[in-house]
Amino acid sequence: MIAKDHGRVISAHPASWLGGLFFLGLLLISLWPSLFNHQPFFFDDTTTYLKGADAGMFKLTGVASDWTPVTKNVPSALTAVQNASAAADLHNTDFLENQTILAGRSIYYGLLLYIGNLLGGFWMTVVFQAALYLASIGLTLRHLDVFSWPRWTLVVLLLAVISPVAFYTSYLMPDLFAGLTILAAANLLIFGSRLSFAERSFWFFTLLLGVLFHSSHILLAAGMLVLGALVAGLPRLRLSGVGAGVIVAAIILGFLGEGLFNFAVTKLTGAAPIRPPFIMARLIADGPGYDYLKKNCPVADFKVCDYLDRLPTPNSDVFLWKHDKIEGVFTPEPIAVKRALSQEQYRFALAVVSSEPLSYLRSALKSLGLQLSLFGVPEFNYTGVQMSRYQKQFPQALKAGLQKTPAAQGTFPVESMGIVIYTTTILLFILYLYSLVTGRYAVLGNSTLALSLLIIGGIVANAVVCGLLSTPHDRYQARVIWLLPALVIMLELLLYTKKFPVAPSSAAEGSRR
């Protein structure tokens, strides 16, 4: 077991009313981008998540919302469910005719959006996200024995200014939960055995939301277990078996949740959801997949051979989402073709990697490096294409407010924020590496160092998952890069308390044990 540290320094809690005001202030700090924008931020996928949940609620209750499509001359609730999910397709393809539902757009995160819409303007959705983030930061400080209200405030304030986390608490997308998945798993693996039941329950709840809200988070959680096995080789370190068990339980429930969604869709529509062929698209766009097809088609028994004249595409997004039949492959084709491409992607990937191992390795490392280097916030100004799409998809009441936002007008200072994020992240990472190499952090103990390695490893694992399965984008890495400054700031606070400990009486008064 990890040895318990003594002399926990935790300041006395303020009065409950004062604590509530304090927490409200932290919430406002953590949501400053959406407050500045006068509205939480949307992405193309937001409507997909929301309309899937809206369709399910309409089926169960018969109550329509302002997002429920009007189905003329077809009173069937089933048809409304199909059309609602279809109409939400992020690339505005005509899935109304195909009546297909894509896998990977979590109905569970859709419910969080649905509730936020029901309560008005999606503000409760982002408040919930920000509150969960704040609690995660506070609890991590507590595990490191450096929690106090001023320190908590300092960390939250710094992260709001120098990292992209406040953008992701303000985002109507499950991206924030990628970082929370990494943080929850790291805390459970290091501190799990010595946590209270309430603390373990909180991390389990956070992790469960993460794996239910997006399938890539299941891969992240599993990757954290692998990283934990590697970190366990450090001397005088024993990871928490209890914490590992909690992570495994969450992963299992994540798979069960996705299975339940697939079952429900199949039961309602008569066909299982289709998972877009991300791996196939990535391999072809990177080169190895296209080289394989040129050498082996038409002999190779793959449906994608029929579309060799449209290949290679500039990137995997074009392969998947371009809706013309000049470049697009997945989106413009009938449902039978979509399903065939989806079902053969893993067999195709195995064939490509077996045939072109070195070419695949080179392309994979290139994509990984590119993904690691992208963590700006350009997505928080809407493009003209997005605005055109939102004008077609959004209810009238929401469109009026949308037009007035800085994001819609393209005036949100994303370039300036990008410079701040890149500069501070790189400098803090240099400080972290310097402190590791010189032994500056040695005084913090193996448990703390192991926690830091797990978090850094989780950031890299996220780049592996996103960079190798999809076209590298800023959003994919920015959603977790805030963990790096959060980690270094906490380590510096801990180092400060080691050098300048409080008086024993104060420590005893503030201890939680």
Summary, kept brief:
The chain has 513 residues and is an all-alpha fold.
What does this structure look like?
With 513 residues, this protein is mainly α. The chain has 26 helices and no strands.
**Low-confidence runs:** 1-12, 72-99, 504-513
Domain tally: 2
Can you write the helix and strand succession as a string?
A: HHHHHHHHHHHHHHHHHHHHHHHHHH
Structural class: mainly alpha
Report the average pLDDT across residues. 87
Rg for CA atoms: 24 Å
Proportion of residues in β-strands: under 5%
Give the overall shape, derived from the CA principal axes.
Answer: globular
Percentage of residues assigned to helices: 55-70%
Q: Number of DSSP strands?
A: 0
Largest β-sheet summary: none
> First CA to last CA: what distance?
18 Å
